[in-house]
Amino acid sequence: MKEFxxxxxxxxxxxxxxxxxxxxxxxxxxIFAFLVIVIFSFAFDPTAQSVKKILPGVIWVAFIFxxxxxxxxxFLSEQINEAIQGLMLAPVDRAAIYxxxxxxxxxxxxxxxxxxxxxxxxxxxxxFSGSWLSLILVVVASTFGFVAVGTFLAALASNxxxxxxxxxxxxxxxxxxxxxxxxxxxxxxxxxxxxxxxATWLRVVLVYDVVFLVIPFLLFDFLLEA
Amino acid sequence: xxxxxAAYTIIWVVIFLYTVYLWRKQNEVATELEILKRAVEDx
Amino acid sequence: xxxxxxxxxLITLVVTVLAVYLVFMYAPVPSNVRDLPEVQKIxxxxxxxxxxxxxxxxxxxxxxxxxxxxxxxxxxxLAASSAEIGVVFxxxxxxxxxxxxxAAWNAWWTWDPRLTTTLVLWFIYLAYIVIRNSAExxxxxxxxxxxxxxxxxxxxxxxxxxxxxxxxxxxxxFEAGQVGLTPKMLTTLFVSLIAFTFLYLYYLLLRLDIAxxxxxxAGIKEKLRAKF
Lengths: 226, 43, 228
Prior knowledge:
heterotrimer, A: mainly alpha, about 0% strand, globular, B: mainly alpha, rod-shaped
């Protein structure tokens, strides 16, 4: 177990180190998330009262799009110089690669969200009355479901000819429950609801998190064959 | 009544097209197989 | 093999004709629906197509597991065939659903939970087919598709639950098809279900035949290539 955790840690550390040398991916994800919001404000009148109602949805669209951008990179970068072969040859359980990548992607996506969310609230002049702690919990729980299944499908897509184009097509239908849950919960918490009032959705998202962490874990060996 | 008619027309058109598609595909493959087999025997 | 396919084809034709007869001649028009009561007859084949859609994707799921366990090509071929047929039937559901909706509630699409789940299901299995088309080698294609076949199927119940709760939060304008079915209607529905199940079997046999012939073709071509 200890060995497994240190393998996971090593993978996260390697990816973070490579990323923070260039910061290419994080900065692209951030810029992309902002662009989505800016495009939305041109598409709808940002000062209209009705826009406040759809703001949670807009925010999540931006997060999901920006997140997908990052997910795409996580395994494609390993294809260069056949780096993935090296990872697979390491004498550790291959599930460590999956968990390491999930953690890494979780860190990038959370960082982007942590910067973008306050800015979105300011840009739309949104008077936030709910509790920040509940909001953070809801965002983290939803992001985790998205990243867990997204990392796995990114690994799957990286094995095909059309990987970057393929990932959104195969990922978006699968994450429908998380998107619904995330938007409904964010909307409720923006309106001042407590966590207890969104318990149903939180349960859906948590079940999703667990299911799509366990099943990829079981199937990951099959994915990395050859 | 026209809605009912439209719905059933669509159902049968889809089924008909898919059936024809499968039949044609099967014919194509079968013919190709036949030609190749004969060619191999002639050699 | 050929005999069996022809026999199933014949049974399919007979049962389907019987089902159509029952739908239009035997099944009564519901008395508790005010506007356009005949439109309710869309139900028989709409529901049957939905049933085949779900059955087909269950077959994909089981065949995917069996493929990953045994690495036998026949399971892959079964999964691929079933997925394609499933997409055809869910397409029928998605085309007839809005027609019914327009007639009964005067709106093409009402985000009814069942219809919306079918839409997501349709997208998931389109994704399955896209994966099959974009993997290069046969072995890899089979493996990646099997993995996604499992993921996709596991997702469907969660999608359904999420969409149902989502719809109960939003105002439900229309209560979907809460028409009680009389025994005569149930008989008609049952025969329609059997008709489409046979149609599914027939398509499956056809598809498997084609796949087998293709494999044989590839084998001969390989041999020829080795010769020259």
